[in-house]
Fold each of these.
Amino acid sequence: MNRLLTFWAGQASHHAGQVDTLFLGLAVLAVLLSAPVFILITWFAVKYRRGKPADRTHAVNRNVWLEVSWAAIPFLATVAFYLWSTGLFIDLYQPPAEALAINAVGKQWMWKFQHPGGQAEINELHVPAGQAVVVTLASQDVIHSLFVPALRLKQDVVPGRYTRLWFRADAAGSYALVCAQFCGTDHAVMGGQLVVQTPADYARWLAAAGTDGSLAAQGAVLFRQMGCSGCHGAASTVHAPPLEGLYGRPVPLANGQVVTADDQYLRDSILLPQAQVAAGYPAIMPTYQNVLGEEDVLKLVAYIKSLANAQPGGGHE
Amino acid sequence: MADTAQARQRETTLMGMYLFLGSEIMLFGGLFAVALALRLMHPQEIVAASKHLHYGIGAANTVVLLTSSLAVALAVAAAEAGKIKGTVVGLQAGAGLGIGFLALKAVEYVSEYHERLLPALAPPEAFANPAAHLFMDLYLIATSLHAVHVTIGVGLLAGLALRVHHRSLALPRQATGVEVVGLYWHLVDVIWIFLYPVLYLVR
Amino acid sequence: MSEATAEVSYLEHGHSLKSWLLTTDHKRIAILYFLSITLFFFVGGAAAALIRIDLLTPEADLMSNEGYNRAFTLHGVIMVWFFLIPSIPNTFGNFLVPLMIGARDLAFPRLNLLSWYIYMVGGLFTIAVLVLGGVDTGWTFYTPLSSMFANGNVILAATAIFVVGFSSILTGLNFIVTVHRLRCPGMTWGRLPLFVWSIYATSLILVLATPVLSITLVLIAAERLFGIGVFNPALGGDPLLYQHLFWFYSHPAVYIMILPALGVISELVATAARKPVFGYRFVAGSSIAIAILGFLVWGHHMFVAGQSMYASAVFSFLSLAVAVPSGIKVYNWTATLYKGHIALDPPFLFAMSFIGLFVVGGMTGLILAMLAVDVHVHDTYFVVAHFHYIMVGGTVSAYFGALHYWWPKMMGRMLPLVWGRLSAIFIFLGFNLTFFPQFILGYLGMPRRYHVYPAEFQTLHVLSSAGASVLGLAYLLPFTYLLYSLRHGGKAPPNPWGATGLEWTVPSPPPQHNFHELPTVDGPPYQYPVEVDGEREAAHG
Ligand code: HEA
Ligand code: HEA
Ligand code: CUA
Ligand SMILES: [Cu+2]
């Protein structure tokens, strides 16, 4: 039966198999709950046809216990499925720590991906089989949605925030990758391939794909080009916070709140610097809203993340 | 017999008005939900932006509207008692105070315009930050939507005063008309009483 | 004098155009709505026909990308706001609520007429959008696409929906007050026909949810005109805020679309079985329960939109809860048929097909409410199939059932039963052929709002388009024989189906003021058997 469902979409991950099983279970439940209705209506329509003799004595017009039971029993049955399905869903929010981090930017009407080593591709995503991959998604314009049917996964890509999608594809092969959220004129052709390769092939592909240095290295270049180092660099005279060791740490804000310096925080600090001002610093950082695209921001974020274990003032521990 | 039919008619009309007011509350409720969301997203900037508003004018306007509500309530009572003079005076006072509210609001808008606080008319750079701009946008939308309601209310009150004066609305038989407009006016007042703290007093 | 005029039916009472356009008679206003809604059904249906023709092949051969996007947007907008939401409440609700509760009219007859004019103004705006080149945002108007990027007539379309919203609010308000204030002596809440209960519940949603849509549309228009930024992250706003506001209205709105249908089916089932509806209290109460719970589940449209995981888990659970009252109705109807005297007349065939299709649509809604599954099928044809099963298979079937059932009452003419049965069957078959393949398409990963698609999907799409042509023709069928019956149908007796309910105690068509003397009710509803058995046989010949 599972085979039947896989002829186009394919089943590229363990999760996909689990979703199929859940879906089949739900289909069976749906049949069980609705079959009595279908069968009885038809049967009654035949048996109690008007003018046809049948035993119609003792027909009742209400029976509270009966009614409560056919409200409660189906509900309890669905609650069991709820627990199952919610369990699977929660897994989707917990990518393993060692997952390969890939960046994706959706824009009208293409997908751009970038690997940690800096390899970039458009409308195609190469990933190694058997390894967890976590894709950080950003949108340059409207809402898009990254959908890989073979993984049974999709995630909206919302301007102004990072969303994430993680998976572990088991079976090498090519699978459709599409945009599921209506995003304007060419929504229907905004898609391409997810290419799952053996780790060796993936390594070969990475090596062959040209790159201007790793993502973090590209970010470091931008960091100098855009003048960030003028304020945040060790030699700077501007009173700006050092970014070494920042990632993942709690940051006290001027308004008394404390937030964790995650990807979203770094992004907002660059594009909306006035929104969350670090405590003890003047709010003089300019916005880069109209200067940097989401891809550049992702590179800068990668660079700042690469400094997570560095000491302020330069030099790694 | 005629009396009970009239009483029934009155309750029917009032009920219709209450439901309409319920839907008005949901209309402004949407705006309040947006205000709450913005507040949660940008607590600091919103507080800072709110400090630029003329809370004095806002407070004065609150007093004006409350007084007008009182005048309208008196007019309703007079209408039910069949006192034509009292009704007309109450309605006129209500409408007059409503105009006063609008005038104060206009003064406020003008001074905000000069302080380059009024969105659409002031360049985006005039605002401390996007969130402040956003807050002023919401301020403008909410207060102008409210002002539209006040304007309609003033029109209704003035029209009623005229009709009562010319006896084309017979009192106390048709007092329900006054009562219904009174309810509407109270709602306009109540909405302001919520708008005022949400916009002016978040500081 | 009053004797004589009372006998003149509402249809005979004045023949001038003016007597129709300035009428405050709820029955005539119902007819006005019926005509205008039918018009919009065909406009929306024509858009559906274009969509299905285009999808016959994987390539874009009939329409360009832009053309297709405009087609499904207008299809959705017209079908939802200009056909389905007003369909049953504004035609049958208008016609029947006063008759069913023993009143001479709605509480505010002039407001009722005003609602129709407002509806027509909104309709004109929609036609203007159509003529000026359409709008390309999807019926959901998601930001920032609609507010900053789309190049269609977004503001005009938003205005159209804003205007028609007022019509909804005023209609709902009118019904609520009518049910509260104008019930005839003895018509207690526990004796109200179930159709009236469902219209009452619908009206609550109309009055309370529609204004939220209105203000949201105002914000969209302001965003587009002035760039106020509430939904624009670059200006500190949030695009998801829009989705919350939209679905806070639109999920309750789907119950606006189904509750009246559920009420119709309760009437049809009771009449067909000649038995009181099983568990009247539960069926009546479940309408109110659906109306209330319906306000708590909007987040199930946003499981992959980036809302918090916890919110999703809560919304998923509440969505299961909202299925319970629907289940009660379905099972209670089944129990009603047990030991009944069932007549397989057209209204009952439509009711049966309603029950079947509503259950499929509802159960798939339940599947959509399951988080892990929705992550996969969200925004695919699985969703398209789900809502067409409920809205078209369900509500439109109920609408046709109601049309057949109350036609003799409204027009005073009997309809050809054989043709009625045939069209019920054809609609059922055509419907399933159109939309069942879409469940499979969706699960296989066919995204919605695509005018081109991978070749693997073609077989299923062709099946669906074939079904749509059967369905389209089957929908045309009733309009031909109903029109025919106006001239050639037999005269309808007051109670052709042998039903209970006050509307069947007055002549068909009813006199202008409904009742000679206001009736008094002295017993529970659905007290069968009714002693008119011979009449139906005689009338249908
Ligand atoms: C009339 C319209 C209507 C109605 C009544 C419903 C009813 C329901 N809908 Fe549907 N829905 C839509 C119209 C409607 N929907 C539309 C238009 C969309 C798409 C919008 C868009 O994106 O464009 C949508 C989308 C939609 C989604 C989002 C899908 C997505 O985009 O990913 C979900 C998810 O939870 C959902 C769930 C439900 C549920 C749980 C019900 C329940 O109310 C169903 C209850 C009924 C039953 C369950 C059947 C009868 C019951 C039994 C036989 C008893 C046994 C069962 C139990 C008690 C468990 N719907
Ligand atoms: C509310 C009611 C409603 C109704 C009644 C219908 C009725 C139909 N719908 Fe619709 N549909 C929606 C609401 C509705 N729909 C909504 C809300 C959407 C989502 C839009 C969006 O994504 O924004 C949608 C989307 C939608 C899609 C998905 C488009 C996409 O995502 O790419 C499809 C595809 O098959 C479709 C098909 C149909 C069909 C075949 C019918 C049939 O039932 C129609 C049958 C009727 C007729 C065909 C009319 C009668 C016959 C004629 C007039 C013949 C003459 C015609 C010609 C000569 C051209 N609909
Ligand atoms: Cu991007 Cu659809
Ligand atoms: Cu919903």
Amino acid sequence: MKACPYCGYTNREGLLFCEECGQGLTDARTGPANATHVFEGNASDYAIKSAWGSASLTTAATIIVHIRDAADPLQMPLADKMTLGRYDSTNSHQPDIDLTPYGALEKGVSRLHATIERNEDVLTLVDLGSSNGTHLNGQRLTPNQPRVLREGDEIQLGKLVAHIYFR
Amino acid sequence: MSREQNPYDILGVPHTATTEEIKAVYRRIARRLHPDVNPSHPAASAQFQDIVRAYELLIDPGRRQAVDQQLNRSEDGFIFSLQVTPSKRQVVPLPEPQVIYLLADILPDPRAQEIVNRGETRLNLTLVLDHSNSMAGTRIEKVKIAAHQIIDNMGSNDILSIIVFNDRAETIIPATPLKDRPALKAKVSMISPGGGTEIFRGLAAGVKENREYLSPNMVNHIILLTDGHTFGDQDECIDLAVQAARDGIGISAMGLGHDWNDQFLDTLASKTGGSSEYITSAGGVVRFLNDHVRNLSSAFAERLRLSVAPDADVVLESAFKLAPHPQPMEFEDGELLLGGLQLNRHISVLLQIQLPSGMQEGPRGIARLVASGDIFTNRHQQHLSVCDVSLDVSADAESESPPDSILDALSKLTLYRLQERAQQALEHGDVTEATRRLENLATRLLAMGQEELAGQALSEARRVAHTKELSDKGRKTLKYQTRHLLIGTNNEDLSQ
């Protein structure tokens, strides 16, 4: 199996273009942002190691969310699923990362706006159908469709802009 | 397949092969294609029957001698060849299925250029033209101009018939050699528009006229031109087309404007080895029709078929004809109908194949491909070319980058598939998925520098999100334009 570096969709081995989004899956076509696969061991215990630098999390254990105009960046250990949003006492589901202190309400962040999910070695960003939308590097996300998140990416929830780093 | 095929070619053995060698080859093929071993692929049993027949001929000394004598008499030169390029030659055995691509090229005989000069390709052409009310005005006038030019350009040995149809069909020119051209043109000039569109009657009359001169040493072809939907008779049309294809008649379909059924015309063409075309405006009619007829008359061989028999554990997922005319292909009993092979162009087909999990190490066969067709100049017209595709399965296979020809074709084919899957999603009522696929398509098109088409994809995506359907025009534009991106990738002109 091979995860698409663009949308995270799991493609069968040997496919040269992602069946979901059409992204090229070979090195030749897509440049540095792409996966290189190393097969180790024999047929029974083969392993694929994803080694695309900026999206790989093999060593990173902490995610840093640097919100624009905020003094200190948010730092937290990586969980499998982290919801970004705005705390609201009337709602039974609360976000894991509360953006209220950063002016979330004025900037149009929904209560449950987006999630950052960890699948094996890749982080993906998923918009949860927010009112004002989620942008990744300037591109608006289609709700509920994961996009791979890389070191240094700019995300925008409503009007709230943040940069993502791993450590 | 015909009994007259060369049994040596079918088995893939040299004429000098000993009986023992023939037996060994036969046993090896039988282990892969015998119906008991490989029941799920129709081409496997069809190919196996041919192999048994060839084997029985060659294993009996008396019959083999007769075959040899006959072959000596009909040794007449021209051939085409089948070349198959896999996306990988070595694969790693995996505990999961994996995909591999095969690029099958059928190449004309390089010595055949002289056929053109001798004018040996004869056309038996039938035009089936829509003259319903919606054709009134420029459209019908352009069709008349095109028909006049075709009458002028065809050779005097060629056969032409013209049917016009609306809700009835009228044979305005019965199948005839082109002798009195002014009289034929006068009949074309009298076509006037009126009535609705019912394709079956026109097509049935067209097939009837084409059969009058049907011959294995001619290009027997029907061109259907319509600008409207036909109602209720589509299945009849397809049945008729399949029957006609069996007899050696190809059918091409041209849709004019955007109010016609693209799925229907695509199926019609793909089941007969013809092509389907989207002509956006009346102005394109003359050029499209003339180009098409010119391509038909530069054929070196006709009725090409590609039979694909995968091994029992291999899955054949899809086939797409890349050249000369890009279009998706459907298998009919394990065979693809590919139409004519032109003198200066390949026929190129891309197959997507799934290999099973847990393959044993070592060399193994994955599929046996047989291309067959009629070469006009040969007395013994049926020719075939066999290619047995095998791979090396090895745990320490080196990773190799796929051939550029495959990568290049796939990068564009992927776009066609995206719009296809957007339409499928829409048919299942999944608006979100359809929108997403169209947006993905727009992103990819932009990355390729196809800005105009990307804009179309994006506006269709918005349209789908709001109205839950594509516009007729947008749907056809995306479908046929993404197909057209493939022109020129594998379509190298051999004459250049």
